[in-house]
Amino acid sequence: YSGGKFTDWGAHHVDIAHWALKQDAKGKGPIEINGADAKHPVPFKDGYPTVDDCYNTSHDFSVPCRFPGGTELVITSRGDNGILFEGTKGRMFVNRQKITGTPIEEGWDKEKFGDDDLKALYKGKPFEGHKQNFYRCIREGGLPVSDVFSHIVAMNTCHLASIAARLGAGADLSATAGEASTLLQSRVARGVERAGLAADVVTVQSVAPGRLQLVLRDAPFDAVATLAGSLARWEGITVVGAEITRTRPGRVEATLLLRAP
Length: 261
Fold this sequence. Notes:
Radius of gyration: 21 Å
Distance between the termini: 28 Å
Helix content: 25-40%
Low-confidence stretches: 169-181
Number of strands: 13
Shape: elongated
Number of helices: 7
Structural class: alpha+beta
Strand content: 25-35%
């Protein structure tokens, strides 16, 4: 249920990664996410688990998220649990137990940061544990070092990655079905209407026999999964591939490859 590992450890690691990339302010975040490399512990159909009485969110995944300027953040369940920063001059790994890598070994930060920097990081509050910082902000007012506004930005990325994994994992683009037709497109239009999406944000195009490409422009990101479920449940149309690109907070452009029944 929920976002599984994406929103569990993702709430910590993705948050720190956003901070490091200066992508933790309103309107920031990835512009492209690819969820093709994700496996689930139960079978999925059209973006929905076929089993709902056990853990069914992805447990094995590597989801690249591309930010403006080309920087890539890979949300992955593989390898050591933490954050690995890779740059042109070296690498640095950090988690709750350790911080290692070339910058640490060579002391790149030696005598570069002082008490004033820590105070600025804590928004004018003294440097202390997160729990004490939170209590202090309740008593005195102000935002804690990790505030709800920056965290919403990070969680947007986590949820987008989860949706991309649900729609893109195990996509089989080689199968074919019957010829695409006007009737098929009208069935897609019914699914779009049922999902509550305006017709002017949707483009449907035949791309191969039995295949349609559906493009949603500047649509609510949760509408993508809703539409996939609607098409499968009521029209028998399967989503066999998906690419999701973030356009602005809460909005995405999604390209879905549909297969006729």
